[in-house]
Amino acid sequence: MMKRVTVLLLAAAIWLTAGDLYYYNNGRKVTLQPVEGGVTPRNMNEKVKLFRRADGETVMVANRLILRLSDPSRLEEYTRKYGLRLIKGYTTPGLYLMETSDVDGAIAVANALREEPDVLFAQPDVGRKRRLR
Length: 133
Prior knowledge:
It contains 3 helices and 7 strands, in the order H-E-E-E-E-H-E-E-H-E. Strands 1, 2, 3, 4, 5, 6 and 7 form a 7-stranded antiparallel β-sheet that branches. By secondary structure, the chain is of the alpha+beta class.
C-alpha cells in the first residue's frame, strides 16, 4: 500500500509540473516534452511514451529504470520504498534494471532515487526512436 502511495505521489508531482519533465544523463539535466499521441504498447507488460528532448531528438521512455547502488544490500529497501520490481541484475555489482508501474513513475522515481545516499546512478530506460533511411 505504501509503495503505491509513494509512486502515485511521485507521478502526481510530475503531472503537476508537466512542463518540467526531466531526467539526468551523465550528471546533466535533460528536459523532455511529451509527443502528442506518443504512447506505444510494446508488449503486455510494458508501455513506452515518446518525448522530444531540448536538442530536438525524439526518444522513447519505458516504464523501467537503470539503477546502480554503492551498497547492493539496500536494493530491497529501495524496491519497497519506491514500488519497484527487479527485472534483471547485471554482472557489474549493484547494477539493476527495475520496473515501475508506468512511464511517468519511472521518470519520477529515477529523479527521487538520485537523492538517496547509496545511489550512484538512476536513469529512466531511454532509447532513441529508430529512423528509416
